[in-house]
Amino acid sequence: MAAIITPDQLIARISAGMNKQESSFFNPGIIPAGPMAGNSRGQRAVNFRDIPSTLETGVTAYIPTELFIQVTTSIGGLVLFGEYIDLGSLNLSTNVFTDGSSMPTRTVFNTSVPLHSPIFVETEASINSTPGSLTITYVDQNGNTAETTASMLLSGGNANVGQCSTAILNTIDVGARDITTAARSGGTSPVGTLRFWGIIPIAMVTTGNQTASTGGSLDLINTGIIRRLPAGARIGGWIQNQSSQAFLSTINYVGDA
Amino acid sequence: MASPLRSVADHMAQESAYGDWQLLWEHRVTAATAANANSGSISGTRSIGTITVPTMTSPVIGAYCTSFNVTAATTSTKYVLADETTLGVLTVSGNSFSGAASMGTGKIYDHTLGAAGSSQTLATHMPMLVVTTAFAGSNPVVTVTYTNQAGTTGRTCTMTLPTSGSVLAINTSYFMAPHLQGSDTGIRAVTGMSISTGSAGVLTVFGLIPVGISEANSQAVSTGFNPILAPIANYLLQGGDRLAFYQIGSTIAGARMCHATFSPES
After folding, report:
1. What is the DSSP string of chain B?
2. Which residues of B touch A172 (CB under 8 A)?
3. Of A140, A141, B141, B182, which has the fewest beta carbons less than 10 angstroms from its beta carbon?
4. CB-CB under 8 Å, A5 with B16
5. With 80 as the cut, is the pLDDT of residue A252 above it?
6. Taking CB atoms and an 8 Å limit, are B11 and A224 in contact across chains?
7. How many contacts (CB atoms, under 8 Å) link A and B?
8. Is the model's pTM score more than 0.90?
9. Is B123 left (phi over 0), alpha (psi -120 to 50) or beta?
10. Cβ-proximal residues to A120 (8 Å cutoff; 6+ apart), any chain
11. What is the mean pLDDT of residues B196-217?
12. What CA–CA distances, in Å, run from B168 to A131, B173, B202?
């Protein structure tokens, strides 16, 4: 059977039981400060299970059809749901960078295109009070190598895993295809681990703003967002705000034929 | 011919056959100098950096923006993602104009055809005067000579820019539309620019065709606008087109995360 290309085919797949739902409850319980002082900050809001590395019989990809998000405070925002690409990690103590993947190449407009993304820097292991500064060397959106960020001061005493900052790339650069290396400079007996992510977006969902709690949902197919997620894809969510809150989210999938 | 805007089924088929483009972009805007009634009234800031629309391979002939969302940090702020064309450049030192250009031609989605319409001569109804290198001087009067939306040449737009401390911050953007001559509504081409005073800086006229609009509500939460759902004049982007991001109604610096989806027409 060919890939799903009509709403009727979508419904037929659901009728045949080729659909599933994943949920995520994530309660970081902290006010995010981000691992880099002065950079855009946010936190991980969603952790869905990865798309299976071996897909079910008769399924070639997962098509997300709906997203739901509920947050526990009145501070609203947009949650960015996306496919997380592991670009690598940096151990601040040993100053060793462990390389990960590059942003993948996908078919865009009938052309094979290497994707790019902002670099999300996440606290993977708690950072101590004197961590130093961070520089990242990357390949930019146009494929130019040896692009190096300015030195970015790390936030001392950042004990909370899951907080994110976005790296400030060189002027006029808008994304990275790959991280070549990352390094810590300075600091006093620095401790901590940073994980670098690229994100291929699925959608942003508005959580709204109400007095008790806020939530939102998004019908992807009917609002112009059609994605086919490959086997092994890591799906998560990020919110750019500064509130202590918990997140409950759900994603509905239909298995592509 | 098949268009992703004709129906959900057509969008699914186009995505399956040729692939949508998912763009995630953190826009960084620097602090701008506020506008006043003599300079477009509404403050604006152009983001650092632009994006190039990827190459398209036949039978793909163009792409539309089908969704657009931006994280908001301030209230009462709008964000515009636009196809941007450089129409003219003024180097303040020496009062030197260069780079005269026109909006060229392009296609708009025709809802009766269910596909892109015929190629037409374009005019921008959102021309922006942008400080592309910081300006030094006091309250300069800028005159832009242009061809209007109907093709009439020799029209003029005059604006007085409000400096702050004898400086106009880089990336500050001013709406030209309120200051076009007579009943003009747009610009096809810029043929000249001049300035009354100033010792340094570069001013550029950009012609914008908005492809995505998002706004922050009173709680500073962004409400996205999905072009695929609205009966607007969806512009058909081409490979190599330049996309720029503008923050409207605020001069505050910061970073905004933007997600846009673009879907192919064949």
Report:
1. ---TTS-HHHHHHHHHHH--EEEEEEEEE---PPP-TTTTSSEEEEPS--EEPPP--TT--EEEEEEEEE--SSSS-EEEEEEEEEEEEEETTTTEEE---B--EE-BEETTTTEE---EE--BSEEEEEEEEEEESSS-EEEEEEEETTS--SEEEEEE---SSSEE-TTEEEE-GGGSSTT---EEEEEEEEESS-SEEEEEEEEEEEEEEEEE-TTS-EE---GGGS-S--B-B-TT-EEEEEEES----EEEEEEEEEEEE-
2. 48-50
3. B182
4. yes
5. yes
6. yes
7. 160
8. yes
9. beta
10. A164, A165, A166, A167, A196, A197, A198, A199, A238
11. 91
12. 38, 10, 10
pLDDT in tens, B207-262: 999 998 887 665 555 666 777 777 677 999 999 999 999 999 888 888 888 889 99
Between residues A96 and A5, the one the model is more confident about: A96
Q: How far apart are CA A92 and CA B239, in angstroms?
A: 42
- Looking at chain B, the whole-number percentage of residues with pLDDT higher than 90 is 68
Among the partner-chain residues A40, A80, A108, the one whose CB lies closest to the CB of B259 is A80
CB B108 within 8 A of CB B116: yes
Q: How confident is the model over B9-44, as pLDDT tens digits?
A: 899 899 999 999 999 998 888 888 899 999 999 989
Interface of B with A in 17-46 (CB under 8 A): 17-26, 28
Joined tokens for residue A122: 């996440």
- Confidence label for B75 from pLDDT (cuts 50, 70 and 90): low
Axis crossing angle, helix B8-18 with helix A7-15, rounded to the nearest 10: 90
